[in-house]
Write a structure and sequence with these properties.
The protein is an alpha+beta fold. It folds into two domains: 128 residues, Ribosomal Protein S5, domain 2; 68 residues, Alpha-Beta Plaits, CATH 3.30.70. The strands form three sheets. A five-stranded antiparallel sheet has the order 2-3-6-4-5, sandwiched between helices. Strand 9 and strand 10 form a beta hairpin. Helix 2 crosses helix 3. The two termini are 19 Å apart.
């Protein structure tokens, strides 16, 4: 197979913590699907922790794990966002945002101390998270005369396809979720049914 059609992420929000020389680091991990979710989550944590000195974060997003961003929020460059991201990379997670809230304890930790603190707080949050595997699916719309329903449903059942939407009348429209590794086989079978029209919609 030339591509991976599954990825690892977390099932739900989780929290972790680490303390060093009076400074407290609280990590919050969130499953996300878009960069548009970052702002609201950071704003929420700032309102929950208004006395914290820093709200640093990293994201890794997209099913091919290609998009990432980091934010040090006033910490020395490379001491906060990058260590958080490195933990996400080491766990091979994507579609995830981790925000670490820091309360300064009065003693400077230095660059190695900061890197270690942000790393360990993130590790703690991920150790408490449930890591799940998700598949990369293509969504297709298929249209056909409803006289072909039995033939179409035979393919849906044999390939364990998920019908996410359907309109049934004289002419039927189905929206199908097809795992990437199944696409070639499923489309070949459906194209073998005379009268079925297939249109790719998007990748999930």
């Amino acid at each position: 197979m030339l591509f991976e059609d599954s990825y690892l992420t977390i099932s739900a929000q989780s929290e972790g913590a680490f303390s060093n020389r009076g400074s407290k680091f609280r990590a919050f991990a969130y499953p996300i699907s878009s960069e548009l979710e970052i702002k609201a989550l950071v704003t929420h944590l700032k309102s929950e922790h208004p006395k914290a000195n820093h709200h640093c974060w990293a994201i890794r997003i997209s099913t091919d794990r290609s998009i990432f961003r980091v934010n040090d929020d006033g910490e020395p460059s490379g001491t906060a966002g990058r260590p958080i991201l490195n933990v996400l990379l080491s766990h091979n997670l994507t579609n995830i945002l981790v925000i670490v809230v820091r309360y300064f304890g009065g003693t400077l930790l230095g660059v190695p101390g900061l890197i270690n603190a942000y790393k360990l707080a993130t590790e703690d949050a991920l150790n408490k998270a449930k890591i799940i595997e998700k598949t990369v699916n293509d969504i297709y719309k298929i249209s056909f005369n409803c006289l072909l329903m039995n033939e179409v449903m035979k393919v849906v059942k044999s390939e364990n396809l998920i019908v996410t939407d359907q309109k049934v009348d004289t002419y039927c429209d189905f929206q199908l979720q097809v795992r990437k590794s199944q696409v070639e086989n499923v489309l070949g079978t459906l194209q073998g049914i005379n009268g079925v029209k297939i249109k790719w919609m998007f990748t999930l």
